[in-house]
Amino acid sequence: xPSNQEIHFDEILxxxxxxxxxxxxxxxxxxxxxxxxxEEGAEVEGASGEWMHKPGTRLYEMNRERNTKIITSKTNGTxxxxxxxxxxQFVEAGEKLLTIRHPLKKKEIxxxxxxxxxxLFEAPERARYYFSMDIQSRIDRKGARSVFIQPGDEIITxxxxxxxxxxxYTGEPGIIHSVYFTPGDSIDQGQPLIGVCAEEKLPVVQxxxxxxxxxxx
Amino acid sequence: xxSLLQRIRTHRQAFxxxxxxxPFAPPAVEKILAYGAPVGAxxxxxxxxxxxxxxxxxxxxxxxxxxxxxxxxxxVLADTLTDSSGRFxxxxxxxxxxxxxxxxxxxxxxxEFTRLLPxxxxxxxxRAVRQYGVDARLKWVNDVLVNRKKLAGILCTxxxxxxxxxxxxxxxxxxxxxxxxxxxxxxxxxxxxxxLSRETxxxxxxxxxxxxxxxxxxxxxxxxxxxxxxxxxxxxxRDGLLLxxxxxxxxxxxxxxxxxxxxxRKPLYQAVAREIDPCGGxxxxxxxxxxxxxxxxxxxxx
Lengths: 217, 302
Known about the structure:
- The structure holds two protein chains of two kinds.
- Chain A has four helices and 16 strands.
- By secondary structure, chain A is α+β, with helices and mostly antiparallel strands.
- The N terminus of chain A is likely disordered.
- By secondary structure, chain B is α+β, with helices and mostly antiparallel strands.
- Chain B contains eight helices and twelve strands.
- In chain B, the strands form two sheets. Chain B has a seven-stranded mixed beta sheet with strand order 1-2-3-7-6-5-4, with helices on both faces. Chain B has a five-stranded antiparallel beta sheet with strand order 11-10-9-8-12, with no helix packed on it.
- In chain B, strand 10 and strand 11 form a beta hairpin.
- The radius of gyration of chain B is 19 Å and the shape is globular.
- Classes of the chains: A alpha+beta, B alpha+beta.
- At the A-B interface, strand 13 of A face helix 5, strand 6 and strand 11 of B.
- Strand 13 of chain A pairs parallel with strand 6 of chain B.
């Protein structure tokens, strides 16, 4: 984690001011023939509904051995680029197909900056997660920002197909500053579960939040 | 008179010769059984335990303290459990007359196949009790039901030992000759005795279960080997061999269900179960026609 001196707020905020967007690249999930369902400049929506069960805008379809899979948008925004030369072509897995320009909200900007500053502990698999009983009771008593964790602590239980697996913390010692999931939520692999901050650096993190809140309209 | 463990091993051997191995050719069957061979390599029997899982954890720690690796497939059996529990610390009633066991399996499968381990255990339990003539079915993921009443329950957890090795601990409870349930379970639980109106030889049933566990765990490892050779994963649409066996036993698709992460404390929504996807996810259709796929949590039939 950078020190106070290493965080150049003006520079970071300047970047967000000049380009307050997140660029989401969409890659093919497997091999197949691709057909685009959107054009550059199109507005797209992410999944919605109480259970996020209503799919977002249809972006493209993949056809492999007569099986067609429709890929939908996970976020809202504008299609900023489409690799239209691939339309109708057979492509390999992992090929970039298009980019969505997602406009950032103030909360997302704060989170974006914090995620550069905090140590992020990520979900090892797509599964549902909840805090271990000990951590949850400490959070309930004092709040997450009073809970200190260190490598080797059993902090979270991962539940997948009715198999519960304890997840041990492997990052820097510190307090749980940000919690990115609601216990029982389904989280994709690689998504952050918690953001951890060394105790002595808490004032720096607080400064980030205060600056953005004050300066961002 | 032979000991209980000898009788279990004799019955296990007999059931291995009668396994339903369709649609696999003899070389594949041989390989599957070889992969599953460690199941029950060591069996420890107790007349009474608090929990089989706790004893298994203790065994693993004892082995590691002596610089040894616990044997894969080690099984702890008890005639009765005094402090048994299910998921979310739910009560599990384990009096004399049932099969109560826990088994350790090293964490050596790829994540895609580890996630199917609870399916393998469910399939093994379901196939074992069906051999006694009950029409047992699996409810996603691995509840074994007869006429919507629970005959067997499964608990799967993962243990990381002090040395850093990881083991899957599988707890299995089958209501065999026990017929009396606590009031709160009377409408939702059943036993082989209740269904068949006769006693079951528990050593024979245990042998049968171990034979089926050997088949199911072996199949899971064989499935992994095949997937690696094919270069395909469930994410890419590959339908697994273990899941095919499991699907034959499952009656969830087509049922109206209520879903929740912890269904007893917090049911979330109702839907119709439409399919089991290649990764084992339950695809459900909501009232507005949209579909949601879950990879965790539990359901009840409504």
